[in-house]
Amino acid sequence: MWALRAAVRPGPWLSRVVRGRGAPRAAPWLPACPNRALAAFGSGGLKGRGSGGRGPRANGPRSRAGEEEEEPEDAEEEEEEEELLRRDPLLPVGTQRVCLIHPEVKQGPGKPQLTRAEWQVAEAEALVHTLDGWSVAETMVVPSKAPDGKLIFGKGTLEHLTEKIRGAPEITAVFLNVERLATPTKKELEAAWGVQVFDRFTVVLHIFRCNARTKEARLQVALAELPLLRSHLKSSMARPDGRGGGSRYIMGSGESFMQVQQRLFKEKEMKIRKALERLRKKRRLLGRQRRRQEFPVISVVGYTNCGKTTLIKALTGDDAVQPRDQLFATLDVTAHAGWLPSCMAVIYMDTIGFLSQLPHSLIESFSATLEDVAHSDLIVHVRDVSHPETELQKASVLSALHGLCLPAPLLDSVLEVHNKVDLVPGYSPTGPQAVAVSALLGHGLQELKARLEDAVLRATGRQVLTLRVRLAGAQLRPHPKAWRLQDPAIHCECLAKWGLDEKPTTHPARRCEELDDTAASSTGWPSTRGHDIVTRQADPSESAPLK
Ligand SMILES: Nc1nc2c(ncn2[C@@H]2O[C@H](COP(=O)(O)OP(=O)(O)OP(=O)(O)O)[C@@H](O)[C@H]2O)c(=O)[nH]1
Ligand SMILES: [Mg+2]
How much is the ipTM here? Predict the structure, then answer.
């Protein structure tokens, strides 16, 4: 007797099987394995050839199958997109010793909740260290009443800062930890301090630029950059009399230099939006194909550096996934196949991390990348519970998720994963919707997988069924390999022959798929490929082959 557990969507074929009659073969459009379903993430979803990534591979495997689905790029379009991506560097290249200034609001409505100045400074330092060759030479926390206003510091504070910066020749730049610096303020401070001054937006944008691999991500960064370039232009052209600088009209065109530049920016913006729409159309098409293939999709979201990529690596065993101790290491949505306890195949989506005080234009540009999240069956919210700002991070992620206009059932069923518990001795999660794990050490993964399976079954309407099938019955009798596998020696031989791992426990799903195909071809038993079948165990009482 074989015990057969399957996570299936109940359908007419199932009742025929249960009644002992032959079931129809799997529909021809069912995918051969979850890896093929990864193809459906295509250019935006996976980093593949068609996605236009020029840089080195980011963390995660590419979808080879996805490439098959891609239409060849129009050479002219390709050239135009590359032209849109040609830009001057946002930040100076080479070694930089940065003075980090954090304006702290001590009281009043501007005082940040759920955080402290030292934690915000730590995050700003992490941002600086993410940049190649950049280090923090000095950190200063200074009082400020309105860090986002034109006058960030009072007169006395400004004088004190100027004295310190001017007196420290090793400082090559200043990172002012405010969301966005008005260009006139930036110019004033640069004139006073004699070094370049950057805000959070510019630093984050630069990191995004360095880490973006796919063409879609790079175009999104280019789009997010436009407001910055526009305001630079405005301030460089501004004159005390309020009129644009340079010659009034260019070559008799009737347009001032400023007007020409603004028109060029507008044209560039339109071109980028058009190019993005082209790429997104492809991604949506591939997304539809993926949904037809019906593998449940689990989106893994969370604050940057909370361990999303590490968790996916732990859940899938995918060695190609490379987590890095870096903010915004993952900038492209990638898909990875894994299996849940009943060997149900699922696809995990690794996503871009969130950050508090991220400028709106940046979030907006990247929200399309997160379209895949809206189409997933389940969202897993990974939290770094060892981080002092874990509550603030949670609030930032939830507010970003709500901003994505996700379907209500998806938002209501979010499963919280409390990660890095190895750094918090004795940690136990509060609330029923949370599982404590250490993705790095592999703790708590079994419980997490069980919780994921429950949630996926609920979200997709699948059911786990256990069927008992007599080996001598109509379904399996003509299938010699099925019973031969009960002999351990032959078992290994068969596994080796099929190119599988000799340890029967390593890839039960793959083993079942192989078995399943053979069973399907010789017995009329339905192929379980694409149907998340599952564990198949020999009953110990029937160790001898049945006739
Ligand atoms: N101690 C400990 N470290 C962890 C754990 N999980 C992840 N890390 C570390 O945290 C750092 C960030 O991990 P990632 O998986 O890259 O984080 P991420 O959320 O994907 O980050 P981004 O892609 O940048 O948003 C790495 O150095 C990991 O080794 C954990 O359970 N325990
Ligand atoms: Mg990551």
Answer: 0.99
